[in-house]
Amino acid sequence: MELTGIGIIGCGIWGTIHAQIFSTSTFTRLISVCDQDSDKAEQLSQKYGAENYTSNYQEILTNPEISAVSIATPDHTHTQIVLDALNAGKHVLVEKPLATTVEECELILTARDASEAILMVDFHNHWNIPFMHVKKMVDNGELGDLQMINVRLNDTIYVPTKMLSWASKSSPVHFLGSHVVDLLLWITGDEIVKVYSVSRSEVLRKKGIDTPDFYQSILEFSKGTSAYVENCWILPENSPNIFEFKGDFTGSKGSASVNVSHHRMIEKYTEEGTGFPDVSGVVDRYGQALGFCTASIEHFIDCLRNNTQPMVTGEDGLVATQIVQAMEESARKGHPVDLQPIID
Questions:
Q1: How many Cα neighbours within 13 Å face the side chain of 15?
Q2: How many Å apart are CA 316 and CA 126, to the nearest integer?
Q3: Among residues 3, 148, 225, 255, which is most buried (max CB within 10 A)?
Q4: DSSP alpha helices (H): ranges in 170-254?
Q5: pTM for the full predicted model
Q6: Quick one: which of 63, 58, 57, 101 has its CA closest to 79?
């Protein structure tokens, strides 16, 4: 069986997860990894047995043995890399967001259509089992008509101040909110028609990071559901987890609550502090990575094997970016923003 040649662009946290999956899959061959920091690329190459490494992603795109690329670079760099990859005839898995503007997303979709390549945005919550249960409950009518949704996806201040060197070129609503927007569109199967958001910029700006501290948003759906969404980057660094992810879904017949961060399946109390270790996102089982964050990458591999379209498409990435842009616009202007369908 011929293995699919893979190149990874971006050797940070998510690039490392991608490398682990592609290097252990029985259907792929990890040929090359790339990062502007050649030392990081070399270290990742050695750790997961990539055949070579580079600091110039064009070397990956011109390699005829590489059929697909995985892009895990900072948010604001996605567009040009994705365009170059599609124009080079490569299949593409890209971390969210697809791009940071609607216009850039539209350029990417045009390039995808011209190349006939597979394009998947890694909105991995489609494989997040607790939310999959909620999706099933909504689809089978167990909750009745959805009335009210509350979702909190927040990070501690460690993320913008220490983890991300490029936080000032992104925001909580791009980095976190895009995940929630896609999640809600998927679970409801509905369109968002109005957005009202507020944000503040004080804590991070005083630390020299010019990006909002948080967004609080009301999203109205065409069928009447109202969702409150919270995304922030200023939770205390000593919080039990680096992130907080909770959701409440209330319908006309019942409700469901999800807690994938402070789940308390495992509680850890040590000299270093309190913690609730991850049991669902990325879990190591005797050297094998498991979890919903890895399942999405495995789905992309299945699409490559079977030449099928992914569950999460470029169109999904476009709609999520449209709504995130509207959230930014609403917060900037101080009033609600109406939305029109962007996909026919």
A1: 24
A2: 12
A3: 225
A4: 172, 178-188, 203-206
A5: 0.94
A6: 101
